[in-house]
Specification:
Blueprint lengths: L5 E6 L3 H6 L13 E7 L3 H12 L4 E4 L15 E2 L7 H8 L1 H25 L10 E4 L3 H17 L4 E5 L12 E5 L3 E2 L2 H14 L3 E3 L6 E5 L2 E6 L2 E10 L10 H4 L3 E10 L4 H8 L4 E4 L6 E4 L5 E5 L8 H15 L8 E11 L6 E5 L2 E5 L5 H16 L3 H4 L20 H12 L5
């Protein structure tokens, strides 16, 4: 008998939250009338900034419009690596070898910062130093992938293995080759975000949820942050809302393209299936522009994401479409049901670079372009160093103070699904 595609207890809560035991926190403290710094957005960016600022003796209030840590920081693909949207080869051709090496050198710093931070937390994060496999679904994708990573191995020193068709590291027969990046990792993003917020609170930051910053107005040499619960006067403000930046923060909102990402989690898999798919329990994705990514969770489920930016009438309908992609790569999972489906908002910038900087006296870190798990805490700390006046520690190639505003058509809600569908048409899954 064929089972229904969704479990009886199907949930639209992120699987990571379920595995972490939830994202609830205790009651928020009262909203103070004054603070040294108000950080708007209590995700990984805000938590890292609040830690650094509070450790330096600043009185920090960390506000979130919803549940602290409940945005993309705890809903993402759970993959930690050296990644952003520009390839080494492209940057080398357009800007020269030295520039490419400098940018990718800082990407290595971003990743090492993440590892150091996770170790220092000394709290559960679900960290796994597992490596990553990138599969190519066509010969052309394989050749492109090999060229890029040959350059990165040569000029950046990244340790990578090149995989031919049939290599057991390629856990799906759909791949025509791929690479194994040896030094990549994974975390449970809900555990990690919760640990980051707990550490910020332990250092003295006040975390206040369900308190949106309705307006931020200049007053004297500082600002007044207006919320539904009252006003907070502050010397410094850090905007750390990324894909959840509201239209009221007009300057920042106009420089971001919010993109909705989707994931599903399965019911626990049979032991024999897990044994075949684990292959070192790595993280996996392909190198299409709209790729499918996945990993085996500690409780033997498959967590899989894809169809990024596309429109879906409901999460249940999206789950069925992602289940089709799951069975494309793994036909043996055709009877496995989906137990969880969820969405989260990422954000891209016009130039596809993350940005940290300052505008009209307000600091910001934003536009992570799908690399936020490692990039957000790193740039949140860079923003904190700028607030503290530690110029050398704030230095970064990502300190791009004036990201270009995104043109009007590109901000329309219908355009991103259209663009993503175009990429899928250009790079279809071979049948």
């Amino acid at each position: 008998m064929t089972l229904p595609p969704l479990t009886d207890d199907f949930s639209e809560t992120p699987l990571w939250w379920t595995l972490a035991g939830g994202m609830e926190r205790g009651d928020s403290p009262p909203l103070p009338s004054r603070a040294d710094v108000v950080v708007v957005g209590a995700g990984l960016t805000g938590a890292a900034a609040a830690q650094a600022l509070a450790a330096a003796g600043r009185d920090v209030v960390l506000l979130d419009a919803g549940r602290p840590g409940g945005g993309a920081s705890s809903r993402n693909g759970a993959m930690l690596g050296r990644y952003f949207k520009h390839s080494f080869g492209q940057m080398m051709e357009e800007r020269g070898l030295d520039t490419a090496k400098a940018w990718f050198g800082e990407l290595c710093e971003v990743y090492e910062d993440a590892l150091t931070r996770i170790r220092a937390l000394n709290r559960p994060t679900g960290f796994r130093n597992c490596g990553r496999v990138v599969g190519a679904i066509t010969g052309a994708h394989r050749d492109k992938l090999f060229r890029e990573w040959e350059l990165r191995a040569k000029h950046v020193g990244e340790a990578v293995d090149f995989l031919d068709t049939g290599n057991p590291e390629l856990v799906s027969d759909r791949y025509s080759g791929g690479i194994h990046i040896r030094d990549n990792a994974a975390v449970n993003p809900a555990l990690y975000t919760r640990a980051m917020l707990d550490e910020a609170e332990a250092r003295g930051a006040r975390i206040i949820g369900h308190t949106p910053a309705a307006a931020i107005l200049r007053e004297g040499e500082g600002f007044v942050v207006h919320t539904p619960r009252g006003k907070v006067a502050t010397r410094d403000v850090l905007i750390a809302t990324n894909g959840y930046t509201p239209k009221g923060q007009r300057w920042h909102h106009r420089r971001l393209i919010p993109i909705v990402a989707f994931m599903v989690g399965t019911e626990p898999l049979p032991d024999a299936t897990v044994a075949r798919l684990r292959a070192g329990r790595r993280t996996y994705h392909d190198n299409r522009k709209n790729s499918t990514y996945y990993q085996i969770t500690p409780d033997n489920r498959l967590a899989l994401g894809g169809r990024t930016g596309l429109w879906h009438p409901s999460l249940a309908r999206m789950a069925l479409r992602l289940r089709d992609e799951m069975t494309y790569f793994f036909p043996e999972l055709r009877d496995v049901r989906i137990s969880h489906a969820w969405r989260g908002k990422c954000a891209a910038t016009e130039d596809l670079f993350p940005h940290v900087g300052q505008h009209d006296g307000m600091h910001f870190a934003m536009g992570y372009c799908f690399s936020g798990l490692a990039m957000a805490p790193y740039l949140g700390t860079k923003a904190a160093m700028a607030i503290l006046g530690r110029t050398e520690e704030a230095r970064s190639l990502f300190r791009l103070d004036a990201p270009r505003a995104v043109s009007w058509p590109a901000r329309q809600e219908w355009l991103i699904p259209l663009a993503m569908q175009y990429f899928r048409w250009q790079e279809p899954l071979p049948r």
